[in-house]
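Our preliminary data section would be incomplete without showing what the modeling component actually yields. Below, a chain of 264 amino acids is followed by its predicted structure, encoded as tokens that our downstream tools consume directly.
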Amino acid sequence: MRNQDLNLYDLVNPDMEAALKKIEGFAEILEKLNDDDPKIIGDPEDVHDDIIEIVTYITEAVKLNSNNAYKFLKAKGLDRIVAQNLKVDDHKLKAHVLILLKLLFDVAPTTTAAVIPITVVDRLLDIFEVDNLALKAHSLDVLYLWLPDQPKVQARVMKIKGLVPFYEQVAKLDMSGIKTLLELFNKILKEHLRVRDDTQKPVIDPEKMKYYIRTGLLEHMATPNVCNGLLNIFIKTWTYSTDENNVIAIVFDTLKIMKKFCIK
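Predicted structure:
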């Protein structure tokens, strides 16, 4: 254990800067190990475990005292820790970072959304290329909290991925993931319908409206490929719906919205 110089038991008032610097120190060790630096001897997996221990410590500190979320954000923890460690290949470490990020959006949603690097969404989308249902579930949970009312981030998602991967992902998710994905889609689609309504345009911030238009979600919805892709989702989910997951209610909600685009 190489974290003895940190008081990992002080969860009420942790030294956040010391914790972040410790993680950065381990990241430097990892980089040297990956570069086969002969001066550094160690096992990358052990170093990942050391980082996980501190990330878990920060997570527990935020759970215990919401002020610690703001400490982490003020210390630029999203740039220094979250953005950097979502690039790693270690799935266990990435999962712990996603859990911390989800907690930050729960505890301090406005501040987190204001200071998070927009490139973090790229890392979240990359996770869907990995065959790991747990990581995908964590990533979806973060996107569910982050994307609504954030047209600039939504525009980036549309630019990077578009809508096709959205409905192609259904075959690669479990029912819980499908439910979250559909709920997120419904929420954002309703948001775009609301803000693009002529009566709402004068009250929407012009900068935000620029990104809503740039995203072009409503225009994409009217294409045959998107309509057929969404219908395929419904066919798949129909057979898996149960009283517990109640995914059919979400499907019907989407069908009501789709009607104006796909049934003409």
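The chain has two domains: 1-146, 161-264. DSSP finds 15 helices and no strands in the chain. Preliminary results of this kind motivate Aim 1 of the renewal.
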